[in-house]
Amino acid sequence: MRAARRSWKTYALGAAAVAALLSSTACGPDGGTEGGAASRAPSGTTSASATTQPADPSPSPSTEAPQPSATTSASPSATGSGKAPACGDKDVSIGTSYWAHDSGQHLLITATNVTDKPCTLYNYPFVTFGQDADSPLTPMESPAKSVATIGPKGKAYAGVKLFLGGEKTDAHKSFGIAYADPSSTENGSPIDVAFSDEVQFVNVGRNPSVTFWNLDRSEVERFVFKAR
Q1: C or N terminus of the chain, fewer CB within 10 Å?
Q2: What is the reported pTM?
């Protein structure tokens, strides 16, 4: 789940290389190029285009959805500049529940801070079902209004669209979850979490997705139920 990082120095060197090439291929008096060098960009120069998230629930159409990464950044409003460290497995307790009259199509994940210090849940939870530990759910387009920093006993929420009506599904009695940590370059490994007694198991369709962490449960509900 590691996102590739490109240093600004890479682009600075690329620019210097282009300048040197242009200098070496300047036009001579007869209209040709001095030294006979071909006037083309040097191979190996890279594009500075950046990949963005979905973040989630309905990501922008693309031929191939970007893989979530533990170092992937959400929009500024979702990540903010919280000073509390990123939450980890030992910092939060995970609870699960259904919405009433929803027929089990969506799952609510509630993370509760069980420590005596605040921590931050960045981006969205990396949720997996079954053996797909290397393929977390794609995020919905659901950035939070503020960074999800939770104090002791504080809570944050994320919603999962499990399946659509009439869709073929598979049943699961547990799920994997991992947390983003922008300060770490290590790959995150999801831990297995059992569902609460209320849920027991879930049915998962072919294109499940998850929202960003949010301090406001009503915001999660708004994104979850508009996702199709």
Answers
A1: C
A2: 0.64
